[in-house]
Design goal:
295 residues, alpha/beta, Rossmann fold, six-stranded mixed beta sheet, four-stranded antiparallel beta sheet, 34% helix, 22% strand, binds adenosine-5'-triphosphate, binds magnesium ion
Length: 295
């Protein structure tokens, strides 16, 4: 497993690891009647495994459209997109949905939980789509909910939860399939600040485990949780600023999580592995410690 790697080897391997997302000159045009509206006008970006990037920009600048393309929920009108080295244009709809299911977890501003299903059933749902058997489904959903501090609300309905709690359930649902990439479009947009902080610490922990996190936000202090800020204006990247290396721990990782984060992230990334079932936390409190040792 990853623990057999010496640190220099691991760092070297992480450096030479291939980008997980490469967008080149992505354009997106919508037809509004007879008028073509150019929403993306040549977006290029490269994201390495383990990066934590925040996408910022004014309303209507094309952030969500970019995220939908990255998440294979939409296709570009022109340009190239390689996801884990695969040219996404070569994939059928079926392949796309498989890849989406396997590699990508989504978190949306509006939580998007199914109101008539319990918390547990909501989180089990992506595993049901994958054909995972009932008992494993349950165990993995409980583990993911436990990691986001929600295991005390398994049989509650979404309407019986606060906004922050609903978002923590949505994060559990996004990671229960163990995706290597987590995409979040304004995940704290509907939350009061203390709940935003809890949700952001979960994203930091997920990134500290080696997952690639891309987050859209309007708020500078939310973007400061990331290692890199990509600014979009009128469908183009106008600035791309990195504050920390890809394999550093995320800047706002909770202090107690940092203390126990003994193993360099590069070691986990080196062999391309990611944690088995969602977060590796065996705690019910999102701000509590995180073990980065391989299991
Ligand atoms: N399906 C669509 N048909 C036509 N125009 C669209 C469509 N989806 C998005 N747009 C337009 O594309 C532009 C970019 O939309 P997008 O949702 O990507 O913006 P955004 O940066 O996420 O904005 P916000 O911060 O308000 O969420 C907007 O002007 C929007 O009206
Ligand atoms: Mg948007």
């Amino acid at each position: 497993m990853t623990s057999t790697l010496t640190e220099p080897k691991a760092a070297k391997a992480a450096k030479s690891s291939k980008p997980v997302i490469v967008l080149r000159n992505i354009r997106k045009t919508y037809m509004m009647g007879h008028v073509a509206v150019e929403v993306l006008r040549g977006i290029s970006m490269t994201i390495d495994p383990g990066d934590f990037a925040a996408i910022m920009g004014a309303s209507g600048s094309g952030k969500s459209t970019t995220m939908h393309i990255i998440g294979c929920l939409d296709v570009p009108s022109r340009g190239y997109y390689w996801l884990d080295g695969i040219d996404v244009r070569s994939l059928t709809d079926e392949d796309l949905s498989k890849i989406r299911n396997r590699k990508i977890g989504f978190v949306f501003q509006s939580f998007n939980l199914i109101p008539r299903l319990s918390v547990l059933a909501n989180v089990e749902l992506p595993l049901t789509y994958q054909g995972v058997k009932k008992q494993e489904r349950r165990e993995r959903a409980v583990a993911a909910l436990s990691a986001t501090g929600m295991s005390h609300r398994l049989i509650h309905m979404p309407t019986e939860l606060s906004g922050g709690e609903q978002q923590r359930v949505a994060v559990a649902r996004a990671v229960v399939t163990n995706p290597s990439i987590l995409l979040a479009d304004e995940p704290t947009g509907n939350l009061p600040s203390h709940q935003s902080a809890e949700v952001m610490n979960i994203f930091s922990q997920l990134n500290a485990e080696g997952r690639t996190v891309i987050l859209v936000t309007h708020e500078e202090d939310i973007a400061e949780h990331a290692k890199r800020i990509i600014r979009i204006q009128d469908g183009m990247v106008v600035r791309d600023t990195r504050s920390l290396p890809v394999d550093a721990l995320p800047p706002r990782l909770d202090a107690s999580s940092k203390k126990t984060a003994s193993r360099p992230i590069s070691a986990r990334l080196a062999d391309g592995s990611s944690p088995p079932h969602g977060l590796l936390l065996n705690t019910d409190t999102p701000s509590e410690s995180i073990s980065r040792d391989s299991k």
